[in-house]
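Recall the central idea of this unit: under ordinary conditions, the amino acid sequence of a chain determines the structure it adopts. In this exercise we apply that idea directly, starting from the sequence alone.
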Amino acid sequence: MAHTVYRNFMRVSDAQDARDALLKAGFPPAAVHLTPHKAPAADTTTSTVENIMNSLTPDSADNTDEPRPKPVALLAVDVLDDEQREQADGIMQRYDALDA
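Accordingly, the structure predicted from this sequence is:
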């Protein structure tokens, strides 16, 4: 039974490098999907919600409120079994993947 492994990346270049490594490792191109995140349109509601969420998340340096960095790309890999899942996850971790 097929499953999909999802990982976020903070840099598009890391996601692209991970995609290239997965293809070199033998994963078929149709099984590897790179999707850049799209920023929501800036409006009053979005800004208000982001400000509230950021105010609830203090930074580690001085406990002041700062926006949290957001992942910029999602890489999804369709796998057939646990062995492929572990292989795909290991490859993506080498390129600083975050859990989706």
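Residues 1-38+68-100 form a domain with the Alpha-Beta Plaits fold (CATH 3.30.70.3450).
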